[in-house]
Task: inverse folding
């Protein structure tokens, strides 16, 4: 069975490629290398012993997308990660985000429709819930106003999938709504490669600890949470990757009744920023240099998942702990800097 992974050299993409290969799939990767590198192929090969087929291709080029699908009609499923993901950047470059995340999705779906290919997994996000009224959020929670163009592209992406399914009963799609993926493969052969100053908490922590950044700013300790810092559902990236393999298998085996389905992919447990720092200090044996600063604009006090739908229907459950993920993130950071 052959699976196309768009954005397969990115952070979640590369971990998913590994899990697909370990599950016996042949993987073809498309990536435009805008936020990744061909070095990731070496990391994947070290883990699985197999180098996936790779095409450097930007999905914004419609003709090239058509040519690619024309030449690869033996694909049994598509896992679509290729997209930009920085919330702040999306506010500065909204049109680029709509083009890069929405237009490209349309081009891929048009090809699936034209060539009657059926199985599609969409990389979505907990950001689709906006500021939730009630926690934990489940898949029936309201889809509130998006907080950023990035969040909007994920909401629109899911709507596009639903509409595409309505006119094509053969199309089977799943949106996986990730909470906060962190960590790295425990072999330290692949992991997160943030370009420039990291915006996300965990790479900022590990870069501070290794000496690349002076100090972590903890954005606010006056939220209505137990220790006053924000709460998120941090999930090991390998757990996230495994969810894709299970969801895809289910589509290929025609075990999903509906044409569109969505699942929360989280641990179901919230941790505060201070708890994440404590976990890092515990597993690394290092004191982290941090200070409390003002709140970051756009942050919600707390977000964590009700994962019972994924647990019950997919038979998937997060297996790694926060400490596992922090230990793997730290191992990866150390390996990166000693290369
Ligand atoms: C955001 C998006 C999410 C997206 C993810 C990846 C929303 C609601 N969430 O997650 O959809 O997939 O980015 O880009 O849009 N923090 C600090 N100091 C730092 C960095 C972060 O204290 O230097 C805190 C933040 O205030 C937050 C937590 O750490 O409480 C996690 O932040 P971050 O890693 O940026 O992820 P989210 O904002 O939750």
Result:
């Amino acid at each position: 069975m052959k699976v196309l992974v768009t954005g397969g050299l990115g952070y979640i993409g590369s971990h998913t490629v590994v899990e697909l290969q370990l599950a016996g799939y042949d993987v073809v990767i498309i990536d435009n290398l805008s936020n990744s590198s061909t070095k990731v192929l070496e990391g994947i090969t070290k883990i699985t012993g197999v180098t996936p087929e790779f095409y450097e291709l930007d999905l914004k080029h419609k003709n090239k997308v058509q040519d690619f699908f024309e030449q690869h009609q033996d694909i049994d499923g598509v896992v679509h990660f290729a997209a930009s993901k920085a919330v702040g950047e999306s506010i500065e470059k909204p049109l680029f985000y709509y083009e890069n995340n929405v237009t490209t999705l349309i081009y891929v779906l048009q090809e699936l429709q034209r060539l009657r290919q059926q199985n599609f997994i969409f990389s979505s996000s907990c950001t689709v819930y906006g500021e939730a009224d009630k926690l934990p959020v489940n898949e029936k929670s309201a889809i509130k106003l998006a907080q950023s163009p990035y969040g909007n592209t994920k909401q629109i992406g899911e709507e596009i999938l639903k509409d595409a399914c309505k006119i094509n009963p053969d199309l089977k799609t799943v949106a996986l709504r990730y909470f906060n993926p962190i960590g790295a493969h425990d072999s330290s052969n692949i992991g997160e490669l943030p370009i420039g100053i990291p915006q996300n908490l965990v790479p900022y922590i590990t870069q501070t600890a290794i000496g690349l950044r002076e100090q972590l700013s903890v954005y606010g300790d006056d939220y209505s949470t137990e220790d006053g810092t924000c709460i998120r559902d941090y999930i090991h990236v390998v757990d996230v990757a495994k969810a894709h393999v299970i969801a895809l298998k289910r589509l290929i085996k025609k075990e999903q009744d509906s044409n569109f389905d969505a699942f929360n992919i989280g641990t179901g447990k919230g941790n505060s920023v201070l708890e994440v720092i404590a976990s890092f200090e515990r597993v690394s044996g290092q004191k982290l240099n941090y200070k409390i600063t003002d709140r970051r604009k756009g942050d919600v006090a707390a977000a964590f998942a009700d994962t019972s739908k994924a647990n019950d229907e997919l038979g998937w459950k997060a297996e790694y702990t926060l400490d596992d993920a922090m230990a793997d993130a730290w191992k990866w950071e150390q390996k990166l800097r000693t290369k």
Summary: Residues 227 and 339 are 38 Å apart (CA to CA).
